[in-house]
DNA sequence: ATAACAAACTAACAAGTGTTAGTTAAAAAG
DNA sequence: CTTTTTAACTAACACTTGTTAGTTTGTTAT
């Protein structure tokens, strides 16, 4: 019973490096050095560099997918649903911002089935969010603006939260959440 | 008098490739192949791979810097200034979205003086935007919310516009602008 | 004590990297 | 027509890449 197994450690260290320089610019020797071992030793724990990327990205992508499915299926108001989506992004950002950065920047280096699977999940996620907004427009909870603009504005902000948090850790999570709900829902004017 | 000189062509082709796979994943042979020549021939026009990156990024960064300086110095209302910032991002996105993607994703592969210079410009840009928002809060044009949240929400959306335009070309620029102003300033509820 | 395993190591390889040197063919300038 | 310039080429370089093979060492189970 170890506090953290070696494979997980490799994944965490890799995610941090991938965030800083991008998947392609990080070598197996870089990862090994950050763990104080030799590159060849990594292969006692992982199959390939590709596998590291897959393990980092797919798990988080699946979490996003499953949570938004649950939100969409619930019988809450549109406002409440959007608030929960905001909460979801904040939660994952706080818990694992390295992996999130990796998902955002390096997903295109996935290959074959993993790439197809990821793109499918991303499309499904956006489609679920679109359904939430659409029904909000239908029942008057949301303004009747161009739906694509609404979706991309909101998701852009949520998806790149990891870029800001880390620099501005002075803001407490609850305050962040409250302000983001204000800004995204009611605007700044 | 050629319609477009060879060096510019290399920069444009490179920007497109960098956007798709990232700076590190694109080889000189990739760039050459996209132009139907050999990798060595590129060196008749450019000094190094690094130089391509610098030429792509710095020019756009300078444009952002100089325009926002002008906006900040003008005597318009805060709302008008923000609208002009939105316009600025839309303009550059429409004109050169490949370079913009490159600036967003690959700036960390700049080196030495170029890196320092870029980071300085980015900080200055954010500081100028912060000043605009701050004076808007001071005179009551903008709600008194957490200023960092306002800044990062707005800039996140503007900076990643290139990810969405290209997929959703059905939206006309004027419509895009009008809707973005609505969403960013007045919210969606 | 002995066997089995986990996880590190050294050494190496084949492929790919950015880049340089030297050459050639066609176009522009004199 | 001759010279210069432009922009392509081939061939090669030194280095880095992900990865494999085989070995060693300390820990765990029998």
UniProtKB/TrEMBL annotation, chains A, B:
UniProt keyword Cytoplasm, yes or no: no
| Occurrences of domain HTH tetR-type (ranges) | 4-64
In which domain of life is the source organism classified?
Bacteria
Spell out the molecular function terms from Gene Ontology.
Answer: DNA binding
Task: Specify one Pfam family.
Answer: TetR_N
Q: Which UniProt keywords apply?
A: DNA-binding
The residue stretches assigned to a coiled coil in this entry are none
The residue ranges marked as DNA-binding region are 27-46
Keyword DNA-binding in the entry? The reply is yes
Q: Matching SUPFAM superfamilies, A to Z?
A: Homeodomain-like, Tetracyclin repressor-like, C-terminal domain
InterPro entries in UniProt:
Homeodomain-like_sf (IPR009057), HTH-type_Tx_Regulator (IPR050624), HTH_TetR (IPR001647), KstR2_TetR_C (IPR041490), Tet_transcr_reg_TetR-rel_C_sf (IPR036271)
UniProt protein name: TetR family transcriptional regulator
* Organism this protein belongs to: Flavobacterium dankookense
